[in-house]
Amino acid sequence: MSTLTDTAPTRSRALSNSAPNPRPFRLLRHSLALAKRSLIKTWRTPEALIDVTLQPVLFLIIFVYVFGGAVAGSTHDYLQFLLPGILAQTIATGAIAIGVNLNTDIAKGIFDRFRSLPIPRSAPLVGAVLGDVVRYVIVTVSTLAIGYVMGFRIETDLFRAIAGCLLAVLFALCLSWLPVLVSMKVRTPGAVQGVMFALIMPLSFASNVFVGANTLPGWMQAFVNVNPMTHLVASVRGLFLGTPLGNHVWWTLAWCAGFVVLFMPLALRAYRKKL
Amino acid sequence: MTADLVIEAEGLVKTFGKTRALQGVDLAVPRGTVLGVLGPNGAGKTTAVRILSTLLTPDGGTARIGGFDVVRDAERVRQSIGLTGQYASVDEDLTGRQNLELFGTLLELGRTGARRRAAELLDWFDLTDAANRPAKTYSGGMRRRLDLAASLVGSPDVIFLDEPTTGLDPAKREDMWDVVRSLVANGSTVLLTTQYLEEADALADAITVIDHGRVIAHDTPEGLKRVVGGQTLEVRPSDPAQLPRTAEILTQVGSGAQADEIRKGVLAVPVTDDAALTESVARFATAGIAVTELSLHLPSLDEVFFTLTGRTASEDDTTRPTEVAA
């Protein structure tokens, strides 16, 4: 540090008496800057992408070849049926990682730094949530890629196929406020994982992911028919395969809005109280 | 409010469960000066800094930075402060440059502004060569420098340094001191916490000593040193046979007390000013006494505490081992 005195700070942030004049879209710009931080971190630790790359591949192979013959009579028919379900299931479990990461991250000094900066308090959380979109895109791409190798084919058109993918990504994005909330409430990353699996597993198995809802006992159908996962899977199936869409897309969007409206304020409140 | 007080705190109280971290702390720092907050682990230094930098809300009392209340006008306060904690608060996975550019973007410097400021700070802190490596590969000293650089991205008026040199080796410590001096020369106001009287003496215009969440002394470094007995001159003559004559000379140059043999072969005497050092050297030369060690010491934190409270700081550490950092 030899050149110290020549290059000392030149511009001083004044303690002015004029009201602060925030530029528009502050929260969005700051969140995007922080989302970029998440992306760099993801890029630096590719092993953290195992859940979104390997899991859909394993699940597709195991379920299609082990159960395909028994459940659908042919592995190809079952693959067509199952792939939208596996996409929904892995993208939902992929949302758990954000809670696990935040739980470790928040204990480090970096969050102190964020909270001492003149940025919206929620920006670090919103940034982390947005930064994980890349993970959801990876789930979608790797699921479709292995599906294609195994013989899966889109039966509609490109436009509807993309709409189905976007809907799944949006679902995970909105759902991820739940693990964020959980991560503020429990002490260890392992606990976040445990709580989230306990919540996501019933949602993904008591649904139409693996079998048609009409094959389930009546009492279970009552749950399955309101399960957000059921609506997402039915929507993606419709958009990929041309099966009837009904109101499933609307229900899925309603659930997405519900996740954000309910869990986002709770997560932000827990975050403010936590430190 | 006095016009030129940049940092003001009155009667700060903070309790964590049963731990009373702060029990009514007053602090005042005039513009462009350095306040040294001196105290042992667990004294409440970090808690005070966290309240002043809006990370914690006090249970009682008020604090203002540049006239803005740290609770009600927290957003305004955050626009003018920089904080460097005891633990490096940068992102370990990001490179040094990416860290600084991120904070520049968050501080509204714009893309080019953030890039320029990052380059400037990397250069200033001698991190240009390591700029494109993830921060987790940095050494302790480099990390500390990056952390300080990160808190200066927005050129803040008020800078909080929470034990900035704890764990650094002496050469790195001097570097850090130079940085603090140049910040002040550029008009910043600094609040620095430390466990070393030496550090507070080297940097601070005023020193507040806190213990168990209370202010037990506030004075200039000179005033405080007078209270705790100034400095100690230590001498080891090469030939132990010279000890009596050495002691005689030391007693004459000292502030009145008898020279004492504090360790085997080492004599010590309290002195009031630095001139005693050169004077003793001249006298030893005249008397033909060769010395192998000659040094001037400030009282340690232990001695300061012993004088101010009648007990040592380290005794205390065993019962309250951790700083309440929450």
**Series of secondary-structure elements of chain B, N-terminal to C-terminal:** EEEHEEHEHHHEHEHEEHEHEEHEHH
Shape of chain B: globular
Level-2 CATH architecture of the largest domain in chain B: 3-Layer(aba) Sandwich
How many beta-strand segments of chain B? 14
Share of helix of chain A, binned:
over 70%
Strand order of the largest sheet of chain B: 6-7-8-3-9-10
What do you see in this structure?
The complex is a heterodimer of chains A (275) and B (326). Chain A is mainly α and 275 residues long. Chain A is 72% helix and 0% strand. Chain A has one domain. The radius of gyration of chain A is 22 Å and the shape is elongated. Helices cover 37% and strands 27% of the residues of chain B. The longest helix of chain B has 16 residues, at 170-185. In chain B, the strands form 3 sheets. Chain B has a 6-stranded mixed sheet with strand order 6-7-8-3-9-10, with helices on both faces. Chain B has 12 helices and 14 strands. In chain B, α3 (96-106) packs across α4 and α9 packs antiparallel against α10 (275-287). With 326 residues, chain B is an alpha/beta fold. At the A-B interface, α1 and α5 of A face α2, α3, α4, α5 and α6 of B.
What's the structural blueprint in terms of helices and strands?
The complex is a heterodimer of chains A (275) and B (326).
Chain A: H1 26-44, H2 50-72, H3 75-94, H4 96-105, H5 109-115, H6 123-131, H7 133-150, H8 158-175, H9 177-185, H10 189-205, H11 218-224, H12 228-241, H13 248-274
Chain B: E1 5-16, E2 19-30, E3 34-38, H1 45-52, E4 60-65, E5 68-69, H2 74-78, E6 81-84, H3 96-106, H4 110-124, H5 140-151, E7 158-162, H6 170-185, E8 189-194, H7 197-203, E9 206-211, E10 214-219, H8 221-228, E11 231-237, H9 243-253, E12 260-263, E13 266-271, H10 275-287, E14 291-297, H11 301-309, H12 313-319
Parallel strand pairs in B: 3-8, 3-9, 6-7, 7-8
Antiparallel strand pairs in B: 1-2, 1-4, 4-5, 9-10, 11-13, 11-14, 12-13
Helix pairs in contact in B: 3-4, 9-10
